[in-house]
Backbone:
């Protein structure tokens, strides 16, 4: 599907914490392809393992994505405003409109999709200090290419990395069990995801987005904060 610049739908959205497992899984498969794989690293492409690699997603012109990212990189505006504009530009692309309509998304789901997109786009703002890159640290165990988060400039102990974010979706008991399944019906679906446990809610959550690539086995404490 072509992402023509004419007659584009204008979607409205606002940040949200309200997400569900099924939508977040689909949205992350789509957005990680657009905002990680299509931006890439030149000769060695970044590959994000999908929740469901068999899922068919709309084709998006790589030039349209690069135009949005390049505008964000060149932005002189504060990160919040620049990222918001980048998300608006992304939502204006025809394949994105097709996706949102095909999935029959209501406004809360559009809000969730746009919020999750902002997690990835925020990495490209010039005020940021991290990037998604390759790592071979776990290849001997997994037999596949892995991704990690690297600092692009020196960081000090205790520094808050505000652009390192992810999205959470509450898991029902049934969804939690489904993610752990290893039977033949699910063998083709690569279970590369993060499930985190909330002590306060006493529930497991699906966790996707850039922060999913953090190497939590690194020495030193790591503290995550819930934000919108």
Residues:
């Amino acid at each position: 599907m072509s992402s023509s610049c004419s007659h584009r739908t204008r979607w409205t959205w606002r940040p949200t914490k309200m997400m569900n497992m099924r939508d977040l899984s689909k949205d992350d498969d789509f957005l990680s392809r657009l905002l990680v794989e299509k931006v890439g690293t030149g000769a060695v492409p970044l590959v994000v393992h999908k929740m469901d690699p068999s899922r068919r997603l709309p084709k998006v012109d790589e030039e349209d994505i690069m135009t949005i990212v390049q505008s964000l990189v060149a932005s002189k505006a504060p990160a919040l405003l620049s990222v918001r504009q980048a998300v608006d530009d992304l939502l204006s692309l025809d394949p994105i409109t097709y996706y949102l309509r095909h999935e029959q998304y209501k406004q809360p789901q559009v809000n969730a999709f746009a919020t999750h997109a902002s997690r990835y786009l925020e990495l490209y703002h010039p005020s940021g200090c991290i990037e998604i890159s390759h790592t071979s640290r776990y290849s001997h165990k997994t037999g596949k290419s892995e991704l990690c988060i690297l600092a692009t400039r020196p960081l000090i102990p205790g520094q808050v990395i505000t652009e390192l974010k992810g999205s959470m979706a509450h898991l029902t008991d049934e969804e939690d069990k489904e993610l752990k399944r290893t039977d033949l019906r699910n063998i083709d679906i690569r279970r590369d995801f993060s499930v985190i446990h909330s002590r306060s809610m006493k529930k497991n959550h699906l966790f996707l987005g850039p922060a999913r690539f953090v190497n939590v086995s690194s020495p030193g404490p790591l503290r995550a904060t819930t934000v919108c």
Q: What stands out?
A: The radius of gyration is 17 Å. Residues 15 and 193 are 23 Å apart (CA to CA).
